[in-house]
Write a structure and sequence with these properties.
Helix content is about 85%, strand content about 0%. The chain contains 3 helices and no strands. It is elongated. It has one domain: Methane Monooxygenase Hydroxylase, Chain G, domain 1, CATH 1.20.58. By secondary structure, it is mainly α. Binds directly to 16S ribosomal RNA.
């Protein structure tokens, strides 16, 4: 454990942020998995709806600093390509 007061505070806040980030990442993985399952089941409506929610959650993760914006953009474009391929 650190001796400096500000460092003790940083340790506590970093732990809170780490836990928050893990929940956001877990939620993201779940929403991305739902898109993939809908695509594999060839369900166009469910896939587009799941894509909409996944895109929203990816954008939210970027705004919270959990993901880099280009990482989220790559994930979104890959998911959108799979959904569009299904509907075409």
């Amino acid at each position: 454990m650190a001796n400096i007061k500000s460092q003790k505070k940083r340790i506590l806040t970093n732990e809170k942020a780490r836990l928050r980030n893990n929940t956001i990442k877990s939620d993201l993985k779940t929403s991305i998995r739902k898109v993939n399952q809908a695509v594999e089941a060839s369900n166009v409506e469910a896939a587009t709806e799941a894509l909409r929610t996944a895109s929203r959650k990816l954008d939210k993760a970027v705004s919270k600093g959990v993901l880099h914006k280009k990482n989220a953009a790559n994930k979104k474009s890959g998911l959108a390509a799979r959904v569009n391929k299904l509907s075409a």
